[in-house]
Amino acid sequence: MTIRPVFYRRSYSWGQASLELGERTLVMGILNTTPDSFSDGGRYTRIDAAVEHAREMAAQGADLIDIGGESTRPGSSLVPLEEELARVIPVIEAVHKALPHIPISIDTYKAETARQALEAGAHIINDVWGLQADPDMARIAAAAGCPVIIGHNRESGGYANLAADIAADLRRSIRSALEAGVQQEQIWVDPGIGFAKDYDDNLSLMGELDELSKLGYPILLGTSRKRFIQRTLDLPPDDVVEGTAATTVMGIMQGCQLVRVHDVQANVRAARMADAVVYRFADIRKQAGE
Fold first, then answer.
1. pLDDT value at residue 289
2. How many Å apart are CA 23 and CA 19, to the nearest integer?
3. Which SS3 state, helix, strand or coil, does residue 38 take?
4. Buried residues in 185-195 as b, exposed as e (16+ CB within 10 A)
5. What is the CB neighbour count within 10 angstroms for residue 260?
6. Is 214 a catalytic residue?
7. Is 226 marked active-site?
8. Sign, Cα dihedral of 46, 48, 52, 57
9. Residue limits of the Pterin-binding domain (predicted)?
10. d(CA 241, CA 208)
11. What does the DSSP assignment read for 186-209?
12. Domains of the chain and any CATH numbers
């Protein structure tokens, strides 16, 4: 069995909250405050329900919580800035107060939402448009000195070489971040499973994730309950826990260091099993001087 993933080591600290990348897979729990998300829309729009779900995910092993106020499902409507702020800021404040030791990421492509979210207690920016939708996003991230997750996305698919084209798109976004003053150690990348990619693209990309490690940045994988899993298993979004866990393991085996999931407990268990193998091989290689 050949296992040669590349793991990047990073340490982050914000008061009581901290993250250590490179010791094991980190699990990001999803907290949607939207009424129309494809699998859990409307469940956590009330602040008390959102905080309780955040507590539950933390108890199940989530290392950080990703809070978003606009659905990214295909066909979803764009959410005005003021509405997005009304959805996410009170929840971020409440979760930060209830769980000060848990880092929070804000899932948005709007710079003003990111700015106010960071002021409210968020620690990380998660931009599914890779800093390309709002020209001020890279500047906000640089000014805050916070980690930024650069997600792959584009207006349409049509790839000549899937992994190479995605890597090229991500390089452009990374260049934008660096030119704005974002430090290299603050950049993570997300291959954007499900964004501007059809069924075959998503399946192919799941087998080529290790190619993206050549970019030189930690990889976050977000496959949770995605349509390509639903279609493969012919199951609804809330019944694909095993399918998501399978993709989690596949990602870890190829060097993904963070996974973004709805079903925290199952994916934490899957990740720990994969880690026991993958990080052991990584340690052996390190001791051998590879």
1. 53
2. 10
3. coil
4. ebbbbbbbbbb
5. 24
6. no
7. yes
8. positive
9. 25-272
10. 22
11. GEEEE--TTSS--HHHHHHHHTSH
12. 10-287 (3.20.20.20)
pTM of the model: 0.93
| Choice among 24, 226, 272, 285 that is catalytic | 226
Catalytic choice (10, 24, 260, 285):
260
CB neighbourhood size of 56 (10 A): 13
Quick one: pLDDT at residue 248? 98
| Contact (CB, 8 A) for 207 and 168 | no
Tokens at residue 91, please?
A: 């929840």
Closest CA to 53 of 94, 86, 19: 94
Position 227: which residue type?
R
Distance CA 98, CA 216 (A): 35
- To which H or E segment does residue 66 belong? strand 64-68
CB-based contact 262:225 (threshold 8 Å): yes
Alpha-carbon gap, residue 177 to 154, rounded angstroms: 17
DSSP string, 71-131: --STTPPP--HHHHHHHHHHHHHHHHHH-TTS-EEEE-S-HHHHHHHHHHT--EEEETTTT
Q: Which residues of the chain have pLDDT under 70?
A: 1-3, 36-45, 73-76, 282-290
